Amino acid sequence: MEIAEIVMKRRARCRIYYAIIHGRLPRVKTLKCTDCGEKQAVQYDHYLGYEEDHALDVQPVCGSCHWRRGFARGEHKLDHIGPLTHEGRFLSEAARKKGGTIGRKNHYQTMNLVRKSPENG
């Protein structure tokens, strides 16, 4: 990503922040997701891009729908995440170097790093 693109994104995000503060846009957490309509929105999506003309053209979305939109636009790539573990979860590069895997603790689905052993692969 080039510096000009980073600056453009930062300016667009600042314009959203000031629009919320001055009452021109509602706080995102008071809205429902535009895509699924079920979850509470947590982010505004610049669906038309970050250019100056579209800086305030945003839609409220939940985190998973926002990621899905970004993936569809080519902003997210799966090749940098890393291989799947035997449990179907992604394992970070740091965890692979330590020889760890992602597992469960008690009955909660937490992302705890546990040492690799013959039992868990």
Quick recap:
The protein is of the alpha+beta class. Helices cover 29% and strands 17% of the residues.
Explain what this protein looks like in three dimensions.
The protein is of the alpha+beta class and 121 residues long. It has two domains: 3-72, no CATH class; 78-115, no CATH class. It is 29% helix and 17% strand. It has helices at 3-21, 63-72, 93-98, and strands at 43-45, 59-61, 100-105, 108-115. The strands form two sheets. The protein has a two-stranded antiparallel ribbon. Strands 3-4 form a two-stranded antiparallel sheet. The longest helix is centred in the N-terminal third of the chain and has 19 residues, at 3-21. Residues 84-89 and 102-117 have low confidence and may be disordered.
Strand order across the largest sheet: 1-2
Helix percent reads 25-40%
> Roughly what fraction of the amino acids lie in strands?
15-25%
Main structural class: alpha+beta
Counted by DSSP, the helix tally is 3
Largest beta-sheet characterization: 2 strands, antiparallel
- State the low-pLDDT regions, or none: 84-89, 102-117
Estimate the mean pLDDT confidence. 76
Count the E strands.
4
Distance between the termini: 37 Å
What spatial form do the alpha-carbon principal axes imply? Answer: flat
> What is the succession of H and E elements?
HEEHHEE
Estimated radius of gyration = 19 Å
